[in-house]
Amino acid sequence: MRFVDASVFLHAYLRPVKKLPPEIETMKAKARDIVTRISHGERVATSLVHVSEIANILEARANLQTALEILSGLLSLPNLIVLEPSVDSYQSALLESERYSIGVNDALVCVLMRAEGTSGIYSFDRDYDRLKDITRVAEQSPKRGRRRCDARLPSRRRRAERRL
Question: pLDDT of 119-139, one tens digit each?
């Protein structure tokens, strides 16, 4: 089981308001590939903190109804495990954040992944590359040495994405 960073869902669902550079378009397509695999049953985890990040950004960038539809769809997936961090895990994340010079929520991911016994994360965030026990799985553009994946976003997700 892999962890899914909030940015993967956001890249998959948010539509740009202006033309994006090709490498960002590629990243967005690859985020949709990951979300497609999840919607087809790949077992993954995220945290309640990351669901909250997704909610906050969707509400700011899209209308409330679209945010509610996307979040409802995510939370209804039986193969998406939503981990609930404790105060202790967040305190551990503060120490990890300082130790590795990464964001607190990124450090929280590391703490939760270790507790779950998993080491792979779907993310485009290179901060995870600093951690020896975490393997970032990032289907990224070839010019940056990134891996490749092809799939399509399911139709109900495409409808929600078009509204953004």
Answer: 999 999 989 988 888 999 976
| CA quadruple 113, 118, 121, 125: dihedral, nearest 10 | 40
What pLDDT shows up at residue 141?
A: 37
In a domain, 25, yes or no: yes
pTM recorded for the entire structure: 0.79
Q: Which residues pair with 81 in a beta bridge?
A: 45
> Is 54 domain-assigned?
yes
Strands 2-4 and 44-47, how do they pair?
parallel
- Tell me if 10 is assigned to some domain: yes
Structural domain that includes position 13: 2-83+122-163
Task: Using DSSP bridges, classify how beta strands 80-83 and 120-122 pair: parallel, antiparallel or unpaired.
Answer: unpaired
The domain that contains 143 carries what CATH number? 3.40.50
Domain count, the chain: 1
pLDDT at 152 over 60: no
Q: How far apart are CA 84 and CA 119, in angstroms?
A: 18
Q: What are phi and psi of 141, to 5 degrees?
A: -65, 145
